[in-house]
Design a protein that fits this description.
Strand 1 and strand 2 form a beta hairpin. Helix content is about 35%, strand content about 15%.
Length: about 375
Protein backbone atom coordinates (compact mmCIF):
# COMPACT_ATOMS: atom_id res chain seq x y z
CA UNK A 1 0.00 0.00 0.00
CA UNK A 2 1.27 3.45 -0.89
CA UNK A 3 0.45 6.73 0.81
CA UNK A 4 -0.45 9.55 -1.61
CA UNK A 5 0.19 13.23 -0.97
CA UNK A 6 -0.92 15.98 -3.37
CA UNK A 7 1.36 19.03 -3.68
CA UNK A 8 0.44 21.83 -6.15
CA UNK A 9 -1.31 19.53 -8.68
CA UNK A 10 1.56 17.03 -8.43
CA UNK A 11 0.97 13.69 -6.77
CA UNK A 12 3.91 12.46 -4.75
CA UNK A 13 3.95 8.78 -3.79
CA UNK A 14 5.43 8.22 -0.34
CA UNK A 15 6.61 4.74 0.46
CA UNK A 16 4.94 3.29 3.57
CA UNK A 17 7.15 3.10 6.64
CA UNK A 18 7.04 -0.29 8.34
CA UNK A 19 7.91 -0.01 12.04
CA UNK A 20 8.41 -3.06 14.24
CA UNK A 21 7.41 -2.75 17.90
CA UNK A 22 8.67 -4.83 20.81
CA UNK A 23 6.93 -6.14 23.93
CA UNK A 24 3.30 -5.15 24.54
CA UNK A 25 2.29 -2.99 27.51
CA UNK A 26 -0.23 -0.17 28.04
CA UNK A 27 1.63 2.63 26.28
CA UNK A 28 2.85 0.49 23.37
CA UNK A 29 -0.69 -0.79 22.85
CA UNK A 30 -1.92 2.81 22.56
CA UNK A 31 0.85 3.61 20.08
CA UNK A 32 0.12 0.55 17.92
CA UNK A 33 -3.51 1.62 17.45
CA UNK A 34 -2.68 5.23 16.61
CA UNK A 35 0.03 5.32 13.89
CA UNK A 36 1.07 8.43 11.98
CA UNK A 37 -0.23 8.58 8.40
CA UNK A 38 1.73 6.25 6.14
CA UNK A 39 3.22 4.33 9.07
CA UNK A 40 2.35 0.69 9.65
CA UNK A 41 3.05 -0.88 13.04
CA UNK A 42 3.41 -4.58 13.77
CA UNK A 43 4.97 -6.52 16.61
CA UNK A 44 8.23 -8.42 16.32
CA UNK A 45 8.87 -11.70 18.07
CA UNK A 46 12.43 -12.42 19.08
CA UNK A 47 14.38 -15.13 20.85
CA UNK A 48 16.44 -14.40 23.90
CA UNK A 49 19.86 -13.15 22.85
CA UNK A 50 23.03 -14.94 23.86
CA UNK A 51 23.87 -11.90 25.94
CA UNK A 52 20.74 -12.23 28.08
CA UNK A 53 21.57 -15.84 28.88
CA UNK A 54 24.35 -14.33 30.96
CA UNK A 55 22.73 -11.07 32.15
CA UNK A 56 19.46 -10.60 34.06
CA UNK A 57 16.93 -7.76 33.98
CA UNK A 58 13.47 -7.15 35.51
CA UNK A 59 12.33 -5.57 32.20
CA UNK A 60 10.53 -7.99 29.91
CA UNK A 61 12.29 -8.51 26.58
CA UNK A 62 15.37 -6.59 27.72
CA UNK A 63 18.29 -6.74 25.24
CA UNK A 64 16.71 -9.42 23.10
CA UNK A 65 18.07 -9.96 19.61
CA UNK A 66 15.66 -8.39 17.12
CA UNK A 67 16.34 -8.59 13.40
CA UNK A 68 13.57 -8.27 10.87
CA UNK A 69 13.81 -8.00 7.05
CA UNK A 70 10.09 -7.12 7.04
CA UNK A 71 10.55 -3.75 8.78
CA UNK A 72 12.24 -0.52 7.75
CA UNK A 73 12.83 0.40 11.36
CA UNK A 74 12.53 -1.08 14.84
CA UNK A 75 11.24 0.98 17.76
CA UNK A 76 12.03 -0.20 21.26
CA UNK A 77 10.19 1.20 24.25
CA UNK A 78 11.89 1.00 27.66
CA UNK A 79 14.98 -1.01 26.75
CA UNK A 80 17.87 -1.24 24.26
CA UNK A 81 18.08 -3.87 21.53
CA UNK A 82 20.70 -6.12 20.02
CA UNK A 83 20.03 -5.71 16.29
CA UNK A 84 21.51 -5.00 12.87
CA UNK A 85 18.33 -3.14 11.81
CA UNK A 86 17.93 0.60 11.96
CA UNK A 87 16.26 1.31 15.28
CA UNK A 88 15.15 4.04 17.64
CA UNK A 89 14.92 3.95 21.43
CA UNK A 90 12.10 5.35 23.55
CA UNK A 91 12.66 5.88 27.29
CA UNK A 92 10.95 7.28 30.35
CA UNK A 93 14.41 7.70 31.89
CA UNK A 94 17.97 6.50 31.38
CA UNK A 95 17.86 4.22 34.44
CA UNK A 96 15.75 1.77 32.43
CA UNK A 97 18.65 1.25 30.03
CA UNK A 98 20.95 0.14 32.81
CA UNK A 99 18.55 -2.26 34.56
CA UNK A 100 20.62 -5.43 34.28
CA UNK A 101 23.10 -7.45 36.31
CA UNK A 102 24.91 -10.74 36.43
CA UNK A 103 22.95 -13.43 38.33
CA UNK A 104 23.44 -12.59 42.00
CA UNK A 105 26.23 -10.10 41.26
CA UNK A 106 25.28 -6.39 41.12
CA UNK A 107 27.37 -4.60 38.51
CA UNK A 108 28.73 -1.10 39.25
CA UNK A 109 26.84 1.68 37.51
CA UNK A 110 29.95 2.77 35.60
CA UNK A 111 30.22 -0.68 33.97
CA UNK A 112 26.53 -0.83 33.06
CA UNK A 113 26.55 2.69 31.62
CA UNK A 114 29.69 1.99 29.59
CA UNK A 115 28.08 -1.06 28.01
CA UNK A 116 24.83 0.79 27.17
CA UNK A 117 26.79 3.74 25.79
CA UNK A 118 28.52 1.38 23.34
CA UNK A 119 25.07 0.40 22.01
CA UNK A 120 23.94 4.03 21.80
CA UNK A 121 27.02 4.93 19.75
CA UNK A 122 26.27 2.37 17.05
CA UNK A 123 25.41 3.93 13.70
CA UNK A 124 22.21 1.89 13.29
CA UNK A 125 20.67 3.54 16.38
CA UNK A 126 19.14 6.60 14.75
CA UNK A 127 17.27 8.38 17.56
CA UNK A 128 16.77 8.32 21.32
CA UNK A 129 13.61 10.03 22.46
CA UNK A 130 12.57 10.57 26.05
CA UNK A 131 8.97 11.01 27.19
CA UNK A 132 9.78 14.18 29.15
CA UNK A 133 12.46 16.76 29.83
CA UNK A 134 12.89 15.20 33.26
CA UNK A 135 13.65 11.88 31.58
CA UNK A 136 16.10 13.47 29.15
CA UNK A 137 18.07 15.01 32.02
CA UNK A 138 18.76 11.55 33.51
CA UNK A 139 21.05 10.80 30.58
CA UNK A 140 23.50 13.22 32.18
CA UNK A 141 22.51 13.20 35.87
CA UNK A 142 22.38 9.41 36.21
CA UNK A 143 24.39 8.17 33.26
CA UNK A 144 26.89 11.06 33.03
CA UNK A 145 26.62 10.64 29.25
CA UNK A 146 27.98 13.79 27.61
CA UNK A 147 29.39 12.38 24.37
CA UNK A 148 28.10 14.66 21.56
CA UNK A 149 27.74 11.64 19.27
CA UNK A 150 25.03 10.34 21.62
CA UNK A 151 23.50 13.72 22.49
CA UNK A 152 22.95 14.51 18.80
CA UNK A 153 20.52 11.58 18.70
CA UNK A 154 18.47 12.76 21.71
CA UNK A 155 15.11 14.52 21.69
CA UNK A 156 11.88 14.71 23.73
CA UNK A 157 8.52 13.46 22.44
CA UNK A 158 5.57 13.45 24.83
CA UNK A 159 3.36 10.34 24.74
CA UNK A 160 -0.04 10.55 23.10
CA UNK A 161 -3.36 9.76 24.73
CA UNK A 162 -6.41 8.77 22.73
CA UNK A 163 -9.22 11.32 22.51
CA UNK A 164 -12.13 10.46 24.78
CA UNK A 165 -15.54 11.03 23.15
CA UNK A 166 -17.38 14.06 24.54
CA UNK A 167 -20.33 11.91 25.68
CA UNK A 168 -18.04 10.01 28.09
CA UNK A 169 -16.80 13.19 29.77
CA UNK A 170 -19.23 13.76 32.60
CA UNK A 171 -19.19 16.10 35.57
CA UNK A 172 -21.22 14.53 38.34
CA UNK A 173 -23.14 15.90 41.30
CA UNK A 174 -22.62 15.77 45.03
CA UNK A 175 -21.79 12.05 45.39
CA UNK A 176 -18.03 12.07 44.84
CA UNK A 177 -16.17 8.99 43.59
CA UNK A 178 -12.39 8.90 44.03
CA UNK A 179 -10.00 6.59 42.18
CA UNK A 180 -6.53 5.29 43.09
CA UNK A 181 -4.75 2.65 41.01
CA UNK A 182 -1.43 0.83 40.85
CA UNK A 183 1.29 -0.37 43.20
CA UNK A 184 -0.08 0.63 46.59
CA UNK A 185 2.95 1.70 48.64
CA UNK A 186 5.15 3.10 45.86
CA UNK A 187 2.28 5.21 44.53
CA UNK A 188 1.40 6.67 47.93
CA UNK A 189 -1.58 4.50 48.79
CA UNK A 190 -1.04 4.94 52.51
CA UNK A 191 -1.67 8.67 52.16
CA UNK A 192 -4.75 8.00 50.04
CA UNK A 193 -6.24 5.84 52.80
CA UNK A 194 -5.23 8.26 55.57
CA UNK A 195 -6.76 11.22 53.71
CA UNK A 196 -9.89 9.33 52.71
CA UNK A 197 -10.64 8.26 56.27
CA UNK A 198 -10.21 11.84 57.50
CA UNK A 199 -12.35 13.22 54.67
CA UNK A 200 -15.12 10.68 55.41
CA UNK A 201 -15.74 12.37 58.76
CA UNK A 202 -16.64 15.58 56.90
CA UNK A 203 -18.17 14.02 53.78
CA UNK A 204 -19.75 10.67 54.75
CA UNK A 205 -21.08 9.87 51.25
CA UNK A 206 -17.72 9.84 49.39
CA UNK A 207 -16.58 6.59 47.81
CA UNK A 208 -13.08 5.29 47.01
CA UNK A 209 -12.21 2.80 44.29
CA UNK A 210 -8.82 1.11 44.80
CA UNK A 211 -7.76 -0.65 41.61
CA UNK A 212 -5.09 -2.75 43.31
CA UNK A 213 -4.43 -6.45 43.72
CA UNK A 214 -3.71 -7.68 47.25
CA UNK A 215 -1.06 -10.16 46.07
CA UNK A 216 0.69 -8.03 43.44
CA UNK A 217 0.34 -4.40 44.53
CA UNK A 218 1.01 -4.66 48.27
CA UNK A 219 4.63 -5.76 48.02
CA UNK A 220 6.65 -4.54 51.02
CA UNK A 221 9.02 -6.20 53.51
CA UNK A 222 7.17 -4.27 56.24
CA UNK A 223 4.59 -6.92 57.14
CA UNK A 224 3.04 -4.85 59.91
CA UNK A 225 2.39 -1.86 57.62
CA UNK A 226 0.96 -4.13 54.93
CA UNK A 227 -1.49 -5.85 57.26
CA UNK A 228 -2.54 -2.57 58.89
CA UNK A 229 -3.55 -0.94 55.62
CA UNK A 230 -5.18 -4.05 54.20
CA UNK A 231 -7.31 -4.32 57.35
CA UNK A 232 -8.35 -0.67 57.13
CA UNK A 233 -9.28 -1.06 53.47
CA UNK A 234 -11.28 -4.24 53.92
CA UNK A 235 -13.18 -2.94 56.96
CA UNK A 236 -14.32 0.25 55.22
CA UNK A 237 -17.63 -0.27 53.37
CA UNK A 238 -17.04 2.89 51.30
CA UNK A 239 -13.93 1.40 49.67
CA UNK A 240 -14.20 -0.90 46.64
CA UNK A 241 -11.05 -2.97 46.38
CA UNK A 242 -9.60 -5.03 43.53
CA UNK A 243 -7.67 -4.78 40.28
CA UNK A 244 -9.50 -4.80 36.95
CA UNK A 245 -8.41 -5.20 33.33
CA UNK A 246 -7.14 -2.04 31.68
CA UNK A 247 -10.04 -1.85 29.23
CA UNK A 248 -12.52 -2.25 32.10
CA UNK A 249 -10.80 0.62 33.90
CA UNK A 250 -11.02 2.84 30.83
CA UNK A 251 -14.51 1.91 29.65
CA UNK A 252 -16.41 1.24 32.87
CA UNK A 253 -14.68 2.94 35.80
CA UNK A 254 -13.03 6.18 34.65
CA UNK A 255 -16.27 7.63 33.18
CA UNK A 256 -17.83 7.50 36.66
CA UNK A 257 -14.97 9.01 38.66
CA UNK A 258 -14.80 12.58 40.02
CA UNK A 259 -11.23 12.70 41.37
CA UNK A 260 -8.12 10.70 40.51
CA UNK A 261 -5.43 10.58 43.21
CA UNK A 262 -1.85 9.40 42.71
CA UNK A 263 0.42 10.76 45.49
CA UNK A 264 3.32 8.78 44.05
CA UNK A 265 6.99 8.68 44.99
CA UNK A 266 8.24 6.81 41.95
CA UNK A 267 6.39 7.34 38.65
CA UNK A 268 8.78 8.31 35.89
CA UNK A 269 5.99 9.68 33.75
CA UNK A 270 2.43 9.23 35.06
CA UNK A 271 0.49 7.89 32.08
CA UNK A 272 -2.46 7.09 34.37
CA UNK A 273 -2.76 10.78 35.18
CA UNK A 274 -3.10 11.55 31.48
CA UNK A 275 -5.81 8.92 31.10
CA UNK A 276 -7.78 10.52 33.94
CA UNK A 277 -7.33 14.04 32.52
CA UNK A 278 -8.60 12.85 29.12
CA UNK A 279 -11.86 11.93 30.87
CA UNK A 280 -12.13 15.37 32.47
CA UNK A 281 -11.18 14.13 35.94
CA UNK A 282 -9.21 16.56 38.15
CA UNK A 283 -6.10 14.92 39.63
CA UNK A 284 -4.04 15.05 42.80
CA UNK A 285 -0.42 13.98 42.55
CA UNK A 286 3.12 15.08 43.47
CA UNK A 287 5.94 17.12 41.98
CA UNK A 288 8.01 13.97 41.48
CA UNK A 289 10.03 13.69 38.25
CA UNK A 290 7.98 14.45 35.08
CA UNK A 291 4.56 14.90 36.69
CA UNK A 292 4.75 18.75 36.65
CA UNK A 293 5.16 18.51 32.86
CA UNK A 294 1.75 16.79 32.75
CA UNK A 295 -0.26 18.39 35.54
CA UNK A 296 -0.41 22.16 35.89
CA UNK A 297 -0.84 22.85 39.60
CA UNK A 298 -4.05 24.75 40.28
CA UNK A 299 -5.19 24.40 36.66
CA UNK A 300 -6.11 20.74 36.07
CA UNK A 301 -5.39 19.46 39.57
CA UNK A 302 -3.16 19.82 42.62
CA UNK A 303 0.47 18.78 43.11
CA UNK A 304 1.94 18.03 46.52
CA UNK A 305 5.47 19.42 46.66
CA UNK A 306 7.89 16.58 47.42
CA UNK A 307 11.04 18.36 46.22
CA UNK A 308 12.44 18.72 49.75
CA UNK A 309 12.24 14.96 50.44
CA UNK A 310 14.45 12.14 49.14
CA UNK A 311 11.72 10.13 47.42
CA UNK A 312 14.18 7.86 45.62
CA UNK A 313 15.54 6.67 48.94
CA UNK A 314 12.03 5.58 49.94
CA UNK A 315 11.71 3.19 47.02
CA UNK A 316 15.14 1.60 46.76
CA UNK A 317 14.79 -1.88 45.33
CA UNK A 318 11.33 -0.89 44.01
CA UNK A 319 9.71 -1.45 47.40
CA UNK A 320 8.73 0.81 50.29
CA UNK A 321 9.98 -0.55 53.61
CA UNK A 322 9.61 2.39 55.97
CA UNK A 323 7.98 5.80 55.62
CA UNK A 324 9.63 8.49 57.79
CA UNK A 325 7.17 10.03 60.27
CA UNK A 326 7.62 13.63 59.06
CA UNK A 327 7.13 12.63 55.44
CA UNK A 328 4.15 10.44 56.28
CA UNK A 329 2.37 13.20 58.22
CA UNK A 330 3.11 15.86 55.60
CA UNK A 331 1.91 13.75 52.64
CA UNK A 332 -1.28 12.57 54.34
CA UNK A 333 -2.18 16.08 55.50
CA UNK A 334 -1.57 17.62 52.06
CA UNK A 335 -3.55 14.82 50.43
CA UNK A 336 -6.45 15.47 52.84
CA UNK A 337 -6.47 19.24 52.26
CA UNK A 338 -6.41 18.91 48.46
CA UNK A 339 -9.02 16.18 48.53
CA UNK A 340 -11.39 18.28 50.63
CA UNK A 341 -10.94 21.30 48.34
CA UNK A 342 -12.08 19.24 45.35
CA UNK A 343 -14.89 17.44 47.18
CA UNK A 344 -16.36 20.76 48.38
CA UNK A 345 -16.71 22.34 44.93
CA UNK A 346 -18.27 20.75 41.87
CA UNK A 347 -17.53 24.00 39.99
CA UNK A 348 -13.82 23.64 40.74
CA UNK A 349 -13.88 20.00 39.66
CA UNK A 350 -15.58 21.00 36.43
CA UNK A 351 -13.08 23.80 35.67
CA UNK A 352 -10.09 21.60 36.40
CA UNK A 353 -11.60 18.71 34.48
CA UNK A 354 -12.17 20.87 31.41
CA UNK A 355 -8.59 22.17 31.63
CA UNK A 356 -7.30 18.59 31.84
CA UNK A 357 -9.23 17.62 28.71
CA UNK A 358 -7.77 20.61 26.85
CA UNK A 359 -4.21 19.62 27.83
CA UNK A 360 -4.77 15.97 26.89
CA UNK A 361 -6.17 16.99 23.50
CA UNK A 362 -3.34 19.37 22.66
CA UNK A 363 0.03 18.82 24.34
CA UNK A 364 -0.55 15.06 24.62
CA UNK A 365 -2.70 14.38 21.57
CA UNK A 366 -1.74 11.70 19.08
CA UNK A 367 -1.94 14.34 16.36
CA UNK A 368 0.84 16.30 18.08
CA UNK A 369 2.90 13.21 18.83
CA UNK A 370 2.49 11.65 15.40
CA UNK A 371 3.63 14.77 13.59
CA UNK A 372 6.91 14.61 15.48
CA UNK A 373 7.25 10.84 15.18
CA UNK A 374 6.73 10.95 11.42
CA UNK A 375 9.66 13.35 11.16
CA UNK A 376 11.79 10.99 13.27
CA UNK A 377 10.84 7.91 11.23
CA UNK A 378 11.55 9.60 7.90
CA UNK A 379 14.90 10.89 9.09
CA UNK A 380 15.83 7.46 10.48
CA UNK A 381 15.19 5.55 7.26
CA UNK A 382 16.88 8.17 5.08
CA UNK A 383 20.22 8.22 6.95
Amino acid sequence: MEHLTSISNTTVVERPIRVGLMERHGMIDEVSHNPPPGVFYSFVNAPQSRLMKVLRSPIKGYLRSYNSPDHDLLESIMHPLVTDNRWILSLANFLECTAFELPGIPLPRIMRVAFIKSLLLRDNLKKIYFWSDAGRRTLETYGHVTDPRVLRKVTVVYPGIRRVPDELIRFHGEDVNILFSGTFFIKGGVHMIDAFEMAQKRFPSIQLRLCCDERIDFNTPNHRMREEYLARIKSNPSITFGRVARQTLIQEILPHMDIYALPTYADTFGFALLEAMAFGIPVISTTYFAIPEIVQHGVCGFLINTDHFDCERLVRGHVVDKIPVDFHEYMSEQMFLNLCTLIESIDLRRRMGEAGVAIARSKFSFETRNQRMLEIYREAIET
